[in-house]
Amino acid sequence: MIVSDTIAAIATAPGPAGVCVIRISGSEALQVADRLVPLTPQKPSRHTSNSFFHADIVHPLTQEKVDDALILIFRAPRSFTGEDVVEVQGHGGTLPSRLLLEAVVAAGARLAEPGEFSKRAFLNGRMDLTQAEAICDFIQAKSERMAHIARAQLDGRLGTQIRALYESVLAQSAEVEHQLDFDEAELAQHFLENATQAVGQVLGQIGAVLRAWNTQGHLLREGALVVLSGQPNVGKSSLLNALLGRNRAIVHHVPGTTRDVIEEQLLIDGIPLRLVDTAGLRETADAVEQEGIARTEALMKQADLNLHLVDATTLTPEALESLPRDPHGLTLLTKADLLSTPLQPREDTLLVSAKTGQGLAALGQAILSKLGISHEASGAEMVNQRQARELELAHGALNRAVDLLLTRELVLAATELRLAAEALGRITGRCYSEDLLDTIFSRFCVGK
Fold it and tell me: Are strands 110-111 and 7-10 parallel, antiparallel or unpaired?
């Protein structure tokens, strides 16, 4: 148990609401609560764990009634933080919640820092770092799929997997270091073969997680960058509006209307996309439009997927066949509703209409297919960027360890194995520094 001072924060969202929750945690949480209810015969510190009662809240300095509230008691170590915790549930609203928090601070608590409750839960062994990060991901999830992934990690699936890898690498590191006490000729029979095989198994598992991150994980967490490009007046802004279901971009027949990039978030089957409308590609003497075109070309190079739009009404079958083929992009034939004669799209093109919605459902599935995103991903392997970076460090160290074992360089192999174990330990928090914790928990909201 980490002995700490007592913190408090509003745990509910700001603004009008039915209830406001003030969370108090620390060694003096119960005593702080006692000072808030001087008119109550049985003080909070006399109540058993997992109990609650109704009481009038009185400001300790002014002796004025602030609110009437429910007070919930959670005693250490069976609480979220592992410390004594008191939750005060008063009336919602910006002013009532502020007055209630001021009374709690006057009673002896200090204002909590972002993520400090979760940080204390980690330090007191109530969760590992993968679960702590999953709390933040769950709160910030923008789709059911991301919420499902965060929920799986909050239940400990990723942490369990990483801990098993950590223990395996640690065992091999200890075994290699033990063998350093013997001459090379005295090494246990098949030792090098068995050690190499064991490390190779860990390498395979880490490699599978990293492949999941590189192909889908980073897209699911960060959102795939999908760029709409093409000449002026091919329907880029109209398509953006149609996909979003609202008029976000200005649509006009005058070429060059869109001069800067417009980025919006879009979910397709729960997959987040960063959809970008861009300036039309053409030769122009307008300096402002030139800058917009330069930004378009830069985004096309960065894009996870480029949607190249072509006005279908300007195409003949011969012109359609001569369009460039992009194996990593998708060509969209727009304004299908204006075609006077049917146009048979090529196998790598898609006929769409922003006005009637023709082809938009197929476009969504084509985007996911081009991005390589499947619906069968389990979610347990969907690590975040920090975790992926540590896995890459561990993977590199283990690869070097295998090479060193094969050449009987046991001292250097032991060093690489320790580096790999430390990298895996930083994922779950088995190894950590204050800087690491500050980086992780600064992402959290106050009160969580």
Answer: parallel
Contacts of 418 (CB under 8 A, 6+ apart): 173
User: pLDDT digits over 354-401, tens only?
Assistant: 889 898 999 888 888 888 776 655 554 578 889 999 999 999 999 999
Q: How far apart are CA 155 and CA 229, in angstroms?
A: 42
| Per-residue DSSP letter, 217 | I
How many other CB atoms are found less than 10 A from the CB of residue 142?
A: 12
Q: What residue numbers bound the domain in which 61 lies? A: 7-127
Residues 58 and 199 placed together within one structural domain of the fold: no
Based on the domain organization, do 270 and 138 belong to the same domain? yes
Tokens standing for residue 424: 């895996």
* % helix, strand, coil for the chain, step of 5: 45, 15, 35
105 and 143 share a domain? Answer: no
**pLDDT digits 0-9 by tens, 146-199:** 788 888 888 888 999 999 999 999 999 988 888 776 665 566 657 788 889 999
| Token couple for 346 | 């090529």
Residue 435 lies in a domain: no
> 282 and 315 in one domain?
yes
Tokens of 171: 């065992």
DSSP annotation of 78: S
- Asked if residues 118 and 134 have their Cβ atoms less than 8 Å apart, the reply is no
Q: Of 143, 113, 112, 119, nearest to 133 (Cα)?
A: 119
Q: In this structure, what are the phi and psi dihedrals at residue 80, rounded to the nearest 5 degrees?
A: -60, -45
Burial label, 191 (beta-carbon count in 10 A; 0-12, 13-18, 19+): middle
Q: Assess whether 120 and 256 both reside in one domain.
A: no
**What is the distance between the alpha carbons of residues 420 and 424, in angstroms, rounded to a whole number?**
6
From the number of C-beta atoms within 10 Å of its C-beta (0-12, 13-18, 19+), residue 162 rates as buried
Question: Please, what is the end-to-end C-alpha distance for the chain in angstroms?
Answer: 19
Inter-residue contact 401 to 199 (CB < 8 Å): yes
